[in-house]
Amino acid sequence: MSCKECYSDNPYATPMLRPRECLEKHTQYICGTCGRCICIERDEKRGLRRWNFPFKSLKIEKLYVRTAEYTAQRKCFIYEIISKSGRKSYKIFSAPSELEEYLKKNKNKMCSGNKPIWSSDEYIDYPNTQFKKLKENELEVYLKHVLDNK
Ligand SMILES: [Zn+2]
Ligand SMILES: [Zn+2]
């Protein structure tokens, strides 16, 4: 069963890349429903968060879409993007106009079907969500689950 708040069926699915570094250095969206930590740190240089980047599968993209929704305070959409070379990737936008902007700036990319392949039903605020860097003891416990889970 997927978590109703963060859409993951695994509360230890993230962080995927360099989990210790991410948990130590980055503010996490901590799901108030299942406890999953989702990186929501804003990159100082480019002003981007993890969810702003393209992902190589819908499954991975879905793990980050809740942080996009929280940032936008509305429901978001996942689109399948195809490059000229035929490579597929997945990106989150909170409105069709954002997708249009992106395609205008990236002439070598197209969107499959020009419609989203996934979105949640509606945006809901959850009362128990936390935003923080984990304390050392919390981090070790959480990290152990993440690593056991790989
Ligand atoms: Zn991170
Ligand atoms: Zn959750």
UniProtKB/TrEMBL annotation:
It comes from the Bacteria. This is Uncharacterized protein.
